[in-house]
Design brief:
- This protein is 39% helix and 17% strand.
- It has 401 residues and is an alpha/beta fold.
- α5 links the parallel β4 and β5.
């Protein structure tokens, strides 16, 4: 798929000699327009060591829209998602919540990433606005057994609301059902136990993660010009939200870009294992053009490995979640070319509202759905405040080219 400018010139010279003419090859005067949002159409960098008077132009390609299938959005029969844009708190409801003097706890899967920190920030902001006291915040560090212990400790404090992202959606079923039955308003984000019925939880607040995967695929297709070889790196845990983003990526590529070959999909149990996992992938497939990772931390491992084998910034990496480190890489024109970003601040904020409404006997949608945001280098500065409710950090802004 990749040709150096020197090879192109050589072929043109041979053809010119054979044809006996001096006319140059035809060039497009402008890239084709695409109706898809937030796609990149900038010139691709010239490969290292190749001299050229101008950078090679990257052809613009059509990026069709696709619907998210119901099975990747609605987790239970009969549950219809409500857009976050239609999930509003009235003044009367806010006053009722404040009068309730509620308490809440956050049972987190991790607190060491940009995404989880923003969820906490959003939940904390909503709690402050509504006079809710956060009595506990835990971090199981991605360990399902530890999360069960954390929840037990939290429930001993008798909070009115528990906000949780379940690591293993097959675990803790009776514990979770018992909490809701005992009067705790259980609100989930991103993932929810697959064995629950509607009466066993208040609401699931989540990004359309299938759609986030599709956004990653759009950026990959644009970067590769619609053809090439790529690898996927996926978490092996039974995590419905993460599986959805994988499927969105794969479905979009396979349906719309048959000349992009997904040569392998590798599984990791720990996000920090991705660098070593990628080492083996690059050894087996040295001609890869890009890689998709489920979220920003494993993407960082893939990038580290790619650099260690001599790949340059034209190697395309996409992932879900706009973490600080991948944002820096994107800003400076590195390997991160596109991100299907969730809106974690909004997730945390609306989880707290959902739990509070239920705690004062107000109705709550069983699923609140938030659209992903497609982030590229060109849209990074405007996307960051929407995702994190704060301005793009100055050190990242200073790297923008």
């Amino acid at each position: 798929m990749k040709k150096t400018v020197g090879l192109i010139l050589a072929v043109m010279l041979v053809l010119t000699c054979i044809a006996g003419c001096t006319a140059p090859a035809a060039q497009s005067s402008a890239p084709a327009e695409s109706s898809a949002p937030a796609t990149e159409a900038s010139a691709a960098p010239t490969e290292a060591g190749t001299e050229s008077s101008a950078p090679a132009q990257k052809a613009s390609i059509d990026l069709p829209d696709m619907e998210t299938p119901n099975e990747w959005v609605v987790r239970f029969d009969g549950v219809e998602p409500v857009s976050v844009n239609d999930f509003k708190l009235t003044d009367e409801q806010a006053a009722k919540i404040k009068e309730g003097k509620l308490t809440a706890a956050l049972v987190m899967h991790t607190t060491g990433e940009s995404y989880s920190a923003a969820v906490v920030d959003g939940a904390t902001k909503a709690a402050e606005e509504l006079g809710i006291e956060i009595v506990a915040q835990t971090n199981c560090d991605w360990k399902a057994e530890q999360q069960a212990t954390d929840l037990e400790s939290v429930l001993a404090l008798n909070p009115d609301i528990v906000i949780i992202m379940q690591v293993d959606v097959e675990a803790m079923t009776q514990q979770l059902k018992g909490a809701q039955a005992n009067g705790t308003s259980m609100v989930y984000f991103d993932n929810i136990n697959a064995n629950l019925a509607e009466e066993d939880y208040v609401s699931l607040v989540t990004t359309n993660t299938y759609g986030a995967g599709m956004e990653c695929a759009k950026d990959m297709a644009q970067q590769l010009g619609g053809e090439g070889k790529i690898a996927m790196f996926s978490w092996t845990a039974p995590n419905l939200g993460n599986k959805a983003r994988d499927q969105g990526f794969r479905d979009y590529i396979e349906k719309n870009f048959p000349n992009i070959e997904i040569v392998t999909q590798e599984g990791y149990t720990e996000a920090t294992d991705c660098a070593a996992l990628a080492d083996g992938v690059f050894a087996k497939y040295p001609d890869l053009d890009g890689a998709y990772a489920q979220w920003d931390v494993p993407a960082e491992g893939v990038i580290s490995s790619a650099k260690s084998v001599g790949l340059g910034d034209d190697f395309a990496v996409t992932c879900v979640d706009l973490g600080y480190n991948v944002a820096r890489i994107m800003a400076e024109g590195g390997m991160v070319k596109g991100i299907g970003a969730q809106q974690p601040y909004s997730v945390g904020y609306h989880c707290m509202i959902a739990g509070a409404l239920d705690a004062v006997d107000e109705s709550v949608p069983k699923m609140v759905l938030i659209d992903p945001i497609n982030v590229t280098q060109e849209t990074l500065a405007e996307s960051w405040p929407v995702i994190y409710n704060q301005e793009l950090p100055s050190d990242i802004a200073s790297l923008m080219k």
